[in-house]
Structures are given as C-alpha cells and as structure tokens.
Amino acid sequence: MVARLLGGGALPALRESSSFQKGLQLPMRLNRASTASFGGSSFLIFREIWIVSARRLLVLSKGRAATCFLSFSPRVTMPKERQHREEIVHYGRMLHEHGYVAAMDGNLSVRLDHDRILVTPTCVSKGAMKAPDMVIVDLDGQQVAGRRNVTSEIGMHLLIYRMRPDVQAIVHAHPPTATGFAAAGIPLTEPLVCEVVMGLGCIPLARYGTPGTSELAQTLEPYVPAYDAILMSNHGVVTYGDTLEHAYMKMETVEHFAQIALVTHLLGRQQPLKEVEIEKLLLARTKYFGAKIAAAMPLPRAPQKVS
After folding, report:
1. Which of 8-12, 27-31, 60-64, 243-247 is predicted most confidently?
2. Is 153 in the active site?
3. Which of residues 16 and 291 earns the better pLDDT score?
4. Where are the domains of the chain?
5. Choosing from 48, 81, 86, 153, which is the catalytic residue?
6. How far apart, in whole angstroms, are the C-alpha atoms of residue 29 and residue 42?
7. pTM, two decimal places
8. Could you tell me if 94 and 248 are in contact, meaning their C-beta atoms sit under 8 angstroms apart?
9. Predicted local distance difference test score (pLDDT) of residue 96
10. What are phi and psi for residue 136, nearest 5 degrees?
C-alpha cells in the first residue's frame, strides 16, 4: 500500500500478508506493536491502525494520522444477516429486471438459523428494495424484527422450511411463460431438455390455492419433499435450494424450459428423451450433485403431436 502522513511525510508500505486474506470485519483495529513481520521482512507498526474499508487503512502515530491505500484487495467478510439482506436485494432486482415479477409481486426468503427466517416485506417492488426493508419472522410466522409488514405468502415459505431442512432459501415469482403453463393447467413434466432433467427433473403443477391463505401452502405440500420447483395453478412458480443463488437459478431454469416447451407446442410435436437416456442423466446428476437436488422424474411417453 502507499500512504501519506497528513501534513507531509511518507509511511513505509506494508506488503500483502496472509493475515489479510482470511477475511476482515470492518471497521477493525489492529493491536499496537512496535514491529511486525510480513512475508519474511520486518516493518514499522504505528500505534494504531484502523482498517476502515476493503482498500483503506487509517494509521495513527504520535498524534499524526495517515490514510493508507492497499495495493491488494483483502477479502472482507460481513455479518451473515447483513450479507443475506444484500443478497435478497440483488436477486429481487434480478427478478424484476428479467420480467419475472411486476409491480409488487413475488417474495424471497433466507433461513438465518434454526428458528428465524429473513423475508421480503409486503407492498414493495422487488426492483426497489433496500436491505433494511427485510423483516425477520420465527417458524410460526410471528414477526420479530423489521419496520415493514411481512409478505402475506409467508405460510408457503414456512411450510417448505419445515418440510425440507436442507432448504436454505426460497424464491417465488411469476415468470410469464412458466406462469402461462400454470394458468393453462399444463405441468412441465416432459423430459425434453437434458439440462432440466439434470437440474430439476421435472416441474409439477400444484392445484390452485388462494394467495395469503393456508390453502396456498396446502396445495404445495404433496410436492415439496420430491421437487425443487413447483408450478402454482393460475398463480406462478416457487423454487428453493441450499442458497439464494441456487434458488434463483432454478427460477431461471423453469422459465427457460417453459419457453422451450412452448416452442414444441407451437411446432406441434415433442420428442421426449427415452427412458435409458433419462437413467443416464439421473446417474450423472447423482455423481455431480449428490443428494442436494430433490427432483422426481416420470417415465416419458412415446413422442406425440401436440394439439
């Protein structure tokens, strides 16, 4: 790093150290010491060094201060809850930018620990959320933190977390093509694309349940243990996984597959993968993903024309 004393003078540069690569909680005060050794060389350490950002130090010595700019980028860690808040903002914005939600539609959540869920509030555009907007509820749905009201569809999230201990994050949205299939009463269960078989198996269709009521969770209950993505009749899609990123990516996969399936309907023909081909894909999925993906796969029917 390069540093200049306020009022003139220069400070010796600190070389990159493995201690800076282990992650830092900011702001951070380094212990005072007379000398320190980095990379086999000794350097002068001032009375106080405060790490105030990922690229900047504040050095205090004998009443003089210096701002030091690092020539490398240490990995900076942030508290777990703050990180999840920022992730929800990020993926909420992606849902909005991709047209998977409109107005104030959709909701996202992350499991903070064994009895707390961080979730999006109601009546907020997913493209305009800020980290402080999120609320925290317990597994009974009681709000324990946050100034906004929790989403009315929290019951759906709580059901999935209770039934699937492996699930750490949930995304609910209304991607147009997939929601079109849900509104038409057509599940996405044909094995048409190998990547979808690998990642999701198939996407079943749950019957309609009124949003904001216990009916909604009840309609999903039969499918939650065996699937990671579910179409919701006349409503939308819900996906979930071991991270919020994976839950979001599954939402993208559902919408992409729905667009492909729609093209096969427009062409009037589908050519599903054969049973032996599906078996090979499922073996490959177990090899690469292990037991992290729950995705049942029905046996294909013979190729057919689509009316």
Report:
1. 243-247
2. yes
3. 291
4. 2-69, 80-305
5. 153
6. 20
7. 0.72
8. yes
9. 98
10. -120, 135
